[in-house]
């Protein structure tokens, strides 16, 4: 063990002497990194002069150059001149005060009354919107039509004398079925067919079920945006509207 320690100490001493260059005389020592070729590449090295740096106080101050800035943008653009003499628009107030009125409905047999109402409205400068809607479907148990009013009256007297049929009346508002006798009007065909079977059992012959309102429509005159002045004009001709009265417009989607 002592020999090993002495050997290690000797090796350390030799390495220290080698690293310090003490053994360069015998050709032992670390290799020094040199670059002599860089010196050979210098051009006119004799012209190189070393100048000491000037102190900060001797250096002339260079005034800062002004930075060009964008032109100032005004906070608000000038508004267009307002003409105080121009009247303010009255459209919002007019719309707020406008009301809707309607007249009718006029049936298929009321063409003359409809024409009278349109003429009266035109006289006071009102032009209504004409709305035509189909008449809801109805079914009627019908006797006839007969060849004449006399034949229809005879059949009506016979029904009255028998006293078996409880519901009957002359047809007066459907030209295609006149002269005829109605034995009942119903909202659906099934109910009309049931009534037909009842009157047949009561001894009535020749009755049938027909669609009472086929192809018929009714007409409403609508005035959707009336000002107070126009309402006054409408009131002046309210008695010349073919027997109809002025009403508030029905809500959209409902029957007029």
TrEMBL record:
Q: Which domain of life is it from?
A: Bacteria
Supply the name of the protein. Answer: SPOR domain-containing protein
Compositional bias (Pro residues) spans?
A: 61-71
The lineage is: Bacteria, Pseudomonadati, Pseudomonadota, Betaproteobacteria, Burkholderiales
Residues forming the SPOR domain are 133-212
InterPro entries, alphabetically? SPOR-like_dom
Where does the record place Low complexity bias?
72-88
PROSITE patterns cross-referenced by the UniProt entry = SPOR (PS51724)
Any single GO molecular-function term of the entry would be: peptidoglycan binding
Q: Which species expresses this protein natively? A: Thiomonas arsenitoxydans (strain DSM 22701 / CIP 110005 / 3As)
Annotated region Disordered: the residues are 56-88
